[in-house]
Write a structure and sequence with these properties.
Layout (H helix, E strand, L loop, with lengths): L4 E4 L1 H10 L6 H14 L3 E6 H11 L3 H11 L5 E5 L12 H13 L2 E7 L5 H13 L4 E7 L8 H13 L5 E6 L6 H15 L4 E5 L6 H10 L4 E4 L13 H10 L8 H18 L13 H4 L3 H13 L6 H14 L9 H14 L9 H7 L12 H8 L2 H7 L7 H8 L5 H9 L2 H10 L11 H11 L6 E6 L2 E6 L4
Parallel strand pairs: 1-2, 1-8, 2-3, 3-4, 4-5, 5-6, 6-7, 7-8
Antiparallel strand pairs: 9-10
Length: 489
Amino acid sequence: MTDVTLIDTTLRDGNQSNWGATGLDTGMMLQIAPVMERIGFESIDFTTSTHMAVAVRFKKEDPWERLRLMREATPDTPLSFLTTGMRFISWEAASEELMEFAFRLVVNNGIRRFAVMDPMNNVPAMLNMADLTRRAGGEQIVAALTFTLSPLHDDAHFAQAAGKLAASGKFDKIYVKDPGGLITPERTRTLMPALKAVMGTVPLEFHSHCTIGLAPFSYLEAAETGVDCLHTCAAGAADGMAQPSMSQTIANLRDMGHTVDVNDEAVALFDTYMTALTASEGLPPGHPGQYDRAFFRHQLPGGVMGTMKRQLAETGRAHLLPQVLTEIERVRAELGYPIMVTPFSQIVSTQAMLNVTGKERYETVPDEVTRYVLGRFGKPAMPMDREIEARIRDSKRARALEDEAQMASLDELRAKIGKGCSDEEFLLRATMPEDQVDAMVAAGPARRGYDPKSKPVMDLLRELTARKGLGSVKIDKPGFKLELNGRGR
C-alpha cells in the first residue's frame, strides 16, 4: 500500500463546478484558511485568471488582495494557479511578454505552484508555458494532461504525451485532468500504469469530477495503481459536478490500507464550516451524480451543461435538449474532436445549439468557432470535416477575422491606460471592462472574515435599515438583546 497525498479544490474547482465560481468571497476563504493550513494539503488549488475576473465582476473584490491575504494565512501550503494557454482573463491571444508579466505578478502576490494545461494537450505549447512560469518564479510546475474520449485518444496516445512531458525535465509533476468525469475504474486500471511506465520518477496526480458518479471509485483504483496524489473537496462543495468528498476519500483509502497523513480534526472542522456556509448562503450542496452513459458521447462538462439547460429554458426551448446533445457529438467530430474543456466545450455546445435552433446547420457561426477553424487555438488532434472547414474559412467573417489585430503590447497598453495605477490594477484594466475595475476600486478592501451564524441577523438588519420611516429596532430573546435607535428616513 502507498502513501497518498491530497490537494484541496474547494476554493476554486468546487466553487466553480457547483456554484459558477461565485459562491465564495474573500472573507469566506480567509475565515477557514488557518484550518486549511493545518490539514496538511500538498497544495491548495486556488485560482485562475478567470476566477480573478469573477472576483472583480461579481464580488467587487480585488483578486490580488485576496491572493496576498490567503498567502499570509497559509504560509506553508502552496497556493496553485491553473493556466490554460496563452491568455490572461481575456480570450484574446496574449504575447509571451504579457503572460510572463502576469505570471510574475501572481508569483509576487502569493502563487507558488502552476498547473499548466493546454486545451489541445499541445506538448510544445505546454513546454513553452513551463519555461514562462519558471522564469516568472514558479516554485512547482505541474503539467495537466487533459483526458477525453475520441478515436485517437487511447492509452498509448496519452502515454506518448506524458513521456515527452516527463522527459523534458521542465515539470515537477504531471496530473491527469478529467473535466467530464469520464474515466471509469476500468480505464483507470489501464491508463494510470501506462502513464507511470513512461514518467520515470515524476509523481502522478489525478483530478476528476463526480458528474456521473465515477470519480470516487476511480480515485480508489488510481491509488491502487500507485497514483501519488488525489484532488478532493470539502463537504458542501464536494460531489455534484466537483471533486469527490475529502473525508470520504480519506476513509476509503485508509480502509484499503493506504496512508493519508492529514490532520483529521482540521478536516472535520473544514467540513463543518463549509456545510454551515452552504446552508447559510443558500448554495446548493453537491450530491453524487447519477450515472448517465450519454456523457460518454457528448462529453459536456457539468457546468456547461447547466448553462445550456438554463439558456434553452429561458427561450422556451427546453424540449430541444436531447437534439442539442446529439448535435454536440456531430459538431465535435466535424471540428476534429477537440477536448471538451474550456474554451472548446463552450465553442462546440454553442455551435450545436445554433445548428438546432436555426433554419439550417452552420447558418450562424460565432466568431470563436471561426477563430478555432482559423487555427487561433492550435491544431486539432484529428482533421476537421473538409466541407465544414471550407465553408467557415471561405466566409466573409473569416476573412475579416484573419486581419483582426492581436492583443496590444505592454507598452501600447501602458500608453492607453496610463501610469497612475499599480502593475496589478493595470493588468486588470488591460484585460477587463473599465467600469468593472472602477467598481472594484470604489468598493474598497474586502471583508476579512465570515461567520455563517451571523448571516440571518445581518440580512435582517439590512432589510430593516432599508425601510423608510423606521425610528428604532428592538430584538429581545433569550440570550440575545439588540436595540437600535436613530432618525426615521
